[in-house]
Amino acid sequence: MKGEWVAAERVEEVRAAARGWKRAGAIGEGTFEEILRRTPEPRTLPALLWRVLAFFFGTFILLAFAAFFVVAARPNPSSAWVLCAILGTAFLVLADLQARSPSLALRGGVAAASFWGILALVGGLFLLLEETLRVREASGLDLVLAGAALLFGLAAWRWGNAAFACFSAGALFVLLARVPHGRLLWVVAGVALSAAAGRFTDRASWAPSHRACAWGLGVCGISAVYAAVNTWSVDRRWIEALGGRARELSEAWPGVGAWAVTIVATALVPLAVFARGVVRRRPILVDTGLLLVALSLVTLRAYVHALDLRVVLAGAGALLLAAALAVNRWLRGGPGGERSGFTADAVFTDEAGFRAVELLPVLVAHSPAARPPDEPGFSGGGGGFGGGGAGSSY
Amino acid sequence: MNASPEVAEAVAALQAAGVLTAGECGRPGRVARGELVSVRSEIRAALYVGVLLVVSGAGLFLRDNVDRIGPSAIAGAVGLAAGACLAWAWRRSAPPSWGESASTHAAFDYVLLLGALLAAADLAWVETQTKLLGPGWPLHLLVVALFYGALAYRFDSRMLLSLALASFAAWRGLSLSVAHGSLGTGDAARLRWEALATGALFAALGIVAARAGKKAHFEDVWVNAGALLVLGGLLSGVFGSGEAWPAWLLALLAVSAAIAAAAYRWKRTLPFAQAALAAYLGLLRGVFSGSGGAFEARFLLAAMLGGAALATIFFAQRRMRLP
User: Contact, A179 vs A185, CB < 8 A?
Assistant: First the structure.
């Protein structure tokens, strides 16, 4: 990443924070204007919707161009990799040219061009190994995964894209699943990755986007460890199946002792992550821990059927409501509405985005189905459960 | 906002320069240094998921035990639960106002949603059992829409207004929900006109209400739903009306241009985005229609049209001066 991009990101962080302070009423209009005057906008930063729109249109354009070249050139399978390599390189050059322009860097086009560029290069590598060099399928796939991990990793470093960092980690873990003792390697690599990434998440010398990449890698590492030790994953030999090695294992695998370890780990890993998040006061670790706790409870339900599913659902919902209200009340009861550095207030965040995300599942799940077309002689049978937004059943 | 070394440094520098007072630096500085963390999103998410789990669990239980418990008892129990939720929301709500009002409690939005969903489901259940409306049973969708709408205006809830509009559209045979299909089932031509009329009605009501100062902040919900229906109806004509598609395409382009122009003038991002996307998709129908000809040229044309659309978006964003 170029030094000027890092400097621009730092200014953008301050400007975004100032907008949050103003929104929350922590500073007045005059102070806000003065902060903006002192930190002039280094690059044009459109609202999220504009960026998403530009990403989609960028995708349409790139794919249409790619289709044009493929249809026009009609390459044979053994030389198709050349076209993929040319297109991939061209897209990556296009991404970098946009990133260098202050007016284009943050519009969504960099992400679109770099994503499709990397996919074209990975596709080209696959075609080269499979159709031209005729490399053995297993080795070829390993090389493709290694190539994907490397390319996405380099792209994350160059353009500071946290999603690319996660894709890179994902390709790496799939690659590890394909070698002997893949599950063990997931644990080792997951711990190493999350520990290494954790050292850089707060490092001031790193660009904000690189710190976000480090957070992404840390969460990927934690997720890999949890996936490797989760009882359901061991029982279904999920990682071994992912690597095509499930059939090589004996019936007795993984052994009685290992089962006990997975059961304990399924319970403890989420709690450890959650506790780490609370101690370090890092929301992303708290959220990851909570998500893993939920997965562990689902895992528990898969093996323990002591209670009826309906009771479990209603009971879990009631417990969740009660816990959320209790935490809210407890935090608000503290001095200044906070306890141990945690607060239930919104601190300088824009909740509009959260509300928009919240709305979508409600509309999908609870908006009523359209009434059926009128049919001659149809006497109706009542609306059933559906009219009230309750779906087709209570 | 999370911990950020840059912001922590900036807070100290701004205080030293006299831009921020000591009082103004307190919370921003602590948040930037990671000394204060908000868990509001986590609490809201837990309340939201909790409500959905309770509704799902209770719903399954009642459905499976309808013979044992009896329909009247179910209707009574669900009605009671809905009433309790709505009464709680009523007690906690801000006084009625045509302006925007803030939530008074973290759980307010979710208890209100739970009460509204339960009440609407109860209404549907009673209708199923009594067959009061007979062949006109879809009318209960209109009743539900009005009920949601009344709650939305009383309690200032965009979520309930969205559900109200979705219920009204369902009454007209349309579904705003992706899960239920874009234009429902049945006579496509009739539904197309229903979509156009309903969408136009939504947009008009939203604009009129906003001009009259009646919950002006709801305008975007009305207008976005209206634009979605109108553009969806026109797109369905372009892609599904057989030989008549060129006429529908012309209509789509004209309406998209009008929506984009209005959105540009009044600085509304989402309708502009919808119009741009719909126009582009419609044009793709024209580019790829028919057989014969150089196929690669069609792809090139599609790419060039995409480039033109992207350039328009960049230009509009810059001129609309949105952040």
Answer: yes
B3-19 residue pLDDT tens: 899 999 999 999 999 99
For residue B180, the distance in angstroms to the closest alpha carbon of chain A comes to 6
Task: Give the model's confidence band at B179: pLDDT under 50 very low, under 70 low, under 90 confident, else very high.
Answer: very low
Rounded to whole angstroms, the Cα distance separating A122 from B102 reads 50
Most confident range, picked from A144-153, A363-372, B69-78, B137-146:
A144-153
Give residue B176's pLDDT. Answer: 58
Nearest CB neighbour to A346, from listed B28, B35, B40:
B40
CB A195, CB A208: distance < 8 Å = no
Answer whether B69's CB lies under 8 Å from B41's CB.
Answer: no
Q: Which of B15, B51, B53, B144 is most worth mutating to test chain A (most A CB atoms within 10 A of its CB)?
A: B53
User: Does residue A54 belong to the interface with chain B, where contact is any CB pair within 8 Å?
Assistant: yes
SS (H, E, C) A69-128: HHHHHCCCCCCHHHHHHHHHHHHHHHHHHHHHCCCCCCCCHHHHHHHHHHHHHHHHHHHH
C-alpha A172/C-alpha A369 separation (Å) is: 43
- Burial, B104: exposed, middle or buried (Cβ in 10 Å; 0-12, 13-18, 19+)? exposed
Determine the Cα–Cα distance for residues A357 and A359; give it in Å rounded to an integer. 5
* Percent of chain B residues topping a pLDDT of 70: 94
Using pLDDT thresholds of 50, 70 and 90, give the confidence band for residue A357.
confident
Segment A349-366 shows an average pLDDT of 74
From the list A64, A344, A388, the residue facing B39 with the nearest CB is A344
pLDDT at B282 over 90: yes
Q: Which residue has the higher pLDDT, A275 or B243?
A: A275
Looking at the complex, report in whole angstroms how far the Cα of residue A131 sits from the nearest Cα belonging to chain B.
24
pLDDT of residue B186: 60
Residue B170 makes CB contacts below 8 A (sequence gap 6+) with: A367, A368, A369, A370, A371, A387, B141, B145, B176, B184
Question: Which two tokens mark B268?
Answer: 């509304």
Please determine, for residue A388, whether its predicted confidence score (pLDDT) is greater than 60. no
Q: B135: which DSSP letter?
A: G
- Residues of chain A with Cβ-Cβ distance to B122 below 8 Å are 388
* Inter-chain touch A363–B158, beta carbons under 8 Å: no
Contacts of B183 in chain A (CB under 8 A): 370
Q: Residue A392 in 3-state DSSP?
A: coil
Residue B172 near residue B233, CB atoms below 8 Å:
no
Mean pLDDT confidence for A17-29: 91
What average pLDDT is seen over chain B? Answer: 87
Record: contact B121-A320, CB cut-off 8 A: no
Cβ–Cβ contact B228 with A under 8 A: no
**Cα-Cα end-to-end distance for chain B:** 18
